[in-house]
Write the structure tokens for this entry.
Amino acid sequence: MGNKWVNTQRAPEHRTAVGLVTVTETRNFTSAPPCSASHTLQEMGYDFKDGKLVSISNGLDATDHRACTGSPSESLLKSVSDYVETYLEEQMNFRKILLPLNAKPSQPTSYIYVSDNASTSKKLLLLIPASGQGGPGVWAPSVVVDKGLDAGSQIPYIKRALSDGYGVVCLHPNGGNVMTDGKRTSVKYHEDSKQHLRYVWDHVIMKTKASRIAVGANGDGGGAVVDLMSTRPKQVRRKLFAVALSDAADNCFTSAGNAANKRFLNIVCQGWVCCAEPINTQITCTDGSLKICSAGKLVCRKKQQNNA
């Protein structure tokens, strides 16, 4: 990988996914320092203020502004993702690694982002968004637009992990198809989230010094973790100690396959799902075998009708 990463932080280990990944109580982004991607958002009439995307013209946050203008455009969602990736590089010293490693100039590539201590830290946090528009550092760009960086980006999780001495790897399971000469082309070894995680595990994670690995995964990102457990069982059981899943727990447990995988999942994994119960209230899974807690009730703000 040509590693020149430096281990800059160490701290006592957390023993559970809850202690590592549930950072609701520490989400206080408060500000988004300018980065070189800000000008693209500004050209579109938006900018971040106290971690929220707002309209430059009237100061309304993006959700209120869109009540009049409609759904966010693809270009706005991409600009938000670009902003977060640039923020990782410029404000948090993350490195972008092109995949496959040593790809030829003519070969289509995907990428991930890694913290500067990722190769040398004894502990790693892997962050995996669901299929769709999520990417490195971003759970969902539409949520960033609607509710801000604290809710839609991975930045609070990254800050918490770094402060606790973890290296961080932000995966990009949605980067396996790219435009080449006007045609959509698959990236070798990265056609889907499962292949992407397998490649990153084999060629990046296993080359680090990490002996303890935690995962935060959303949606079918959890399925990729279960696939890895099935295809590399000895490595995964030796290193993986905590898995936090959002909107993925039931499907993951069902697809875990053999009893050994299910027992391991039950030990290291906890899931969160949207429901009316208070946040972190334990609820019962369908088969009663996996720890699942409430992520709270998903509240969607109603758009005001424009009767003018």
